[in-house]
Target: Biosynthetic arginine decarboxylase
Amino acid sequence: MSDTVSQNGTGPQPPSSSSWTIEDSEDLYRIRGWGDPYFGINSAGHITVSPQGDRGGSLDLYELVEALKKRNLELPLLLRFSDILEDRIERLNACFAKAIARYNYPGVYRGVFPVKCNQQRHIIEDLVRFGNPYHFGLEAGSKPELLIALASLKTPDSLLICNGYKDRGYIETAMLATRLGQHPIIVLEQPEEVELVISVSQQLGIKPVVGVRAKLSAKGIGRWGGSSGDRAKFGLTIPEIITAVDQLRQANLLDSLQLLHYHIGSQISCISAIKDAIREASQIYVELAQLGAKMQYLDVGGGLGVDYDGSKTNFYASKNYNMQNYANDIVAEVKEACDEKQQAVPTLISESGRAIASHHSLLIFNVLGSSDAPSGIPEVGPEKEHLILRNLRETYDSITPETYQEAYHDAVQFKDEATSIFSFGYLSLRERAKAEQLYWACCRKIYDIVRQQADVPTELEVLEKTLASMYYANLSIFRSAPDSWAIEQLFPILPIHRLNEEPSLRGTLADLTCDSDGKIDRFIDRLQSKSILELHPLKPGEPYYLGMFLVGAYQEIMGNLHNLFGDTNAVHIHLTPNGYEIEHLVKGDTMTEVLEYVEYNAKDLLENVRKATEAALQTGKISIEESQRLLQNYEQSLRSYTYLA
Ligand SMILES: *Cc1c(COP(=O)(O)O)cnc(C)c1O
Model:
């Protein structure tokens, strides 16, 4: 898999400084921006994790990974820090408590966790436990999620918000949950659900608490902007809400309507979009109360963003507000609207998933090798060289800070010509190799000049990407970071050690899949994003570990089995006074398990290979030793991890 393992940095190098410090690394990888208060760098140049923020101890991530490897936990490895999850819940509740105090809001906050964000049992169990002091509830977006929520939620006074498309079975189950002491709220997402709820209520003799999801005209922005507006997939338009009110009134159930919900999309990067939505929703809330509904809850959905690049801007990988601003704006706007119409304020609900779950998980993977673009300049032989080669050499010699741009165009043109001459049979394979080597030499020389310029012409930005080293990463993007592939989401990625050493190479990451999309070539940066990541030259015989951070929301469940790379190993780490404890260890899939997903039976497969081996033995095509070796390898593989050892 690895071409040449680059040892001495043949790729382009950033301006070198001999006195690289961990502060330089902090700055380069923007750790304070996205990692505060959970991640930092220690004097050994290793990433540290402080799962309780500034209130608790910290762990050396590199040492933790080494210790886990000694317990036979192979990479890639997903680390989940339950203390971070707890800290996120505390923070969110503290922000709302602070806002409620600041604006003298005569109501409370009762958050819920949207199960779809991470359905893993250990995580939901942790969330329920950590949420207990705050009466934190759960939100279900589908029938299977309702089953999870119903069985997991045991917190007094917490809410069970029932969203998503519903059939009679869903509604019955949700309503009957009342009998168990739960507080389910059935949120009408479709006009058809109104009659269904009325009918189930009459049949069971249960008066449900019902909510309505409004299609706001205030739009979210960015990737999930389509979650609101008239053409959104979910929710009722204003005329449909009025119809629902009339239907409920007729069925004597108008007092069941107690909640207004909206969700304008995930990762809202701009505070103004949040303000617009809450302003519009507050008015709808007040109006519904005046129409006779017994309004008690306002559920603002998700959307609270995560600052993946640490830039604190309205770039899609960031957000231009913090959690406290978010809580303040919601509390203040609702209070103002209610005061104006002399309406009692609602219990506030938010369904923040990303903001709660992202930080607690990170993926550690190793680099298997790297390859660089061809380097060096081919020798001039005794014979006269082909014209195209002479042209390329001349171009190379002509490169100066004044001419580099023109020289670049020439180099590209000559290289294209070389390829086409080759295709017509007028250039030998050896000559073509020389032409390509010369082309790369031109690119490097030009790049060295370009790097010193303040204003880089855009076409030359391509150079940086072209010359970058390729680092082969032991992971599948499709399994572990599907959003990086599907929607170009940015996650912070960086080495977890050697951070006191200058990362002298620039690289992109290629994953294990045989898919050309299986790569990462967009990374967080100061402004927008960059196409290369600063990395260290690999040292022979030494592992190089990278961490992908903030992956606790959505990535696990949306990951797929492309090329049959299965679930990664996962460990749940909890900080103790003496260090840490492994609370749970969830072994990743074996090959037998991934093969079962596609309906293969490991025993049958092995039997097929055994029969073929037997037949080959009979005809003398394989020796007995070879046959044993083959079968042993096959059997052992079936039991082992799908990633490379
Ligand atoms: C996905 C979703 C959420 C969670 O959104 P985040 O941005 O992750 O907080 C909340 N509510 C609904 C209705 C959703 O569909």
Notes: The chain has a mean pLDDT of 94. The radius of gyration is 30 Å. The CA atoms of residues 380 and 390 lie 10 Å apart. The pocket of pyridoxal-5'-phosphate is lined by residues 114, 116-117, 141, 163, 263, 266-267, 301-304, 351-355, 553 (CB under 6 Å).
